[in-house]
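Q: Hi! First time asking for a complex rather than a single chain. Here are the components, and I think there are two in total. Is that enough to go on?
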Amino acid sequence: MIDAREAITRAHEEEWARVIAALTRRFGDLDIAEEAAAEAFAAAVERWPADGVPPNPGAWLTTTANRKAIDRIRRENKRDDKHKEAQTVYGNDPPEPVGAIDDDRLRLIFTCCHPALAMQTRVALTLRMVGGLTVPEIARAYLVAETAMGQRITRAKTKIKAARIPYRVPSAEDLPARVSGVLAVLYLVFNEGYLATGPDTDPLRPDLTAEAIRLTRLIRGLMPGDGEVAGLLALMLLTEARRTARVSAGGDLVPLAEQDRGAWDAGLIAEGHRLVRERLAATAAGAAPGRYQILAAINAVHTSARDIRDTDWSQVLALYDQLIRLDPSPIIALNRAIAVAEFDGPQVALAAVDRLEDTLAGYHAYHATRADLLRRLGRGQQACAAYDKAIELAGNTAETAYLTRRRDQLR
Amino acid sequence: MQYLVSVIDDKSNPGSTDRRPAISAFNERLIAEGYWVFSGGLADTDAATVIDNRGEPAVFSDGPFVESKEYLAGIWVWEAPDLDVALKLAAEASKVCDRKIEVRPFL
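A: Yes, that's all I need. Here is the structure of the assembled complex.
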């Protein structure tokens, strides 16, 4: 019965967040929702191969999960009548009036990414509740023991309930800040997949990048008018498009300039470019672009060039200038300097990079950038020292391999 | 839902001492909007006494139960519908008091 198995996989991808979200709204309790949803999917695994796939799998799962949740509440109520009262009161709160965007899954996302939760907790909770990853899967992704990850998620659910973190879409005035909090969580998941940290992990984690893209697509579907959501999705797509070209057969990181552009994923690039064009049109109509939109535009310039020599560096620089006005962080200044090297030459870029020493001396990319510029300026010994420092600080295995190879070429 | 709202001061870097009028005005507003349940500033931790009567006889010790750089300088109890409302008020309270604020729900 391959059909049933496929149907379950698809239902899990499409319906997990919806089932959790609907149950959380009804019962006012993430823990009950999570357990009941897991039981409903387990029931599907048992029943669908024998009974056939129901005509509306989502409805079947929601109904089954609802029944499981009510069973659990009944069981608990026999033990504790007070709990029942609390449950009913909280569960029957009238739904908050919301604007045009009203979907239980959005409430769920905003609750999982609430600013009162620690960043790592938001990531774990979002992957579990919205993404439907299991606790062992999340623990593996972040190289944390399963029990520790389970406790982190349990503590988060306890805090949400005890402190009454609300289950709703934030008001219009709070929305931009809260959306940006959600996007930060998704970008963190994506980046961990894009450049995984730790000596014992694969350098690329396509499972994490794919999950981040899937969740960002979901949010894009729920908030199609939000420019930063579109920007982040475009940024992820244009980055993901280069994934296979980013690591060599030998396991070294391949820098942008040396990548086989024919290996880039044309479909993802086309989709990313469409989103960037959509945002450029909105900007032309007066919308102010946020950082993800600008980063996406920079990536659109790179992915438009068939050869590194065709890159429109003046446009890349102009976009970085725009980004720095929005977010004057040293890391953005460092990335801008990389573009300066192509436009004004490595000497000018090195001067700009050296000015960042105070803030970035502990950051591997600062030393890697310096090393590359010194190498291009023929200052081999200094370049070697900078590579040493970068290797010492780099956390990604492919990046370490690349830096080591570059350094050894200078010796 | 009730929240204990703690005002946290720092011995090595204390907040400004001229906040009373602003705090009074803020309290008036909390009362008018129905959030205020209780509030009070606390005397210095030097004035605290800890009592342990779990065994006989009761033991009294001079000073707070834990010595730390950061200490509780005052408290509120607020009635708020959810944490978002409490956090928004707490952000204002932190400005008004010129100190850090901890929000913790009652059971």
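A: Residues 83-97 of chain B form the longest helix (15 residues). Let me know if you'd like any chain examined more closely.
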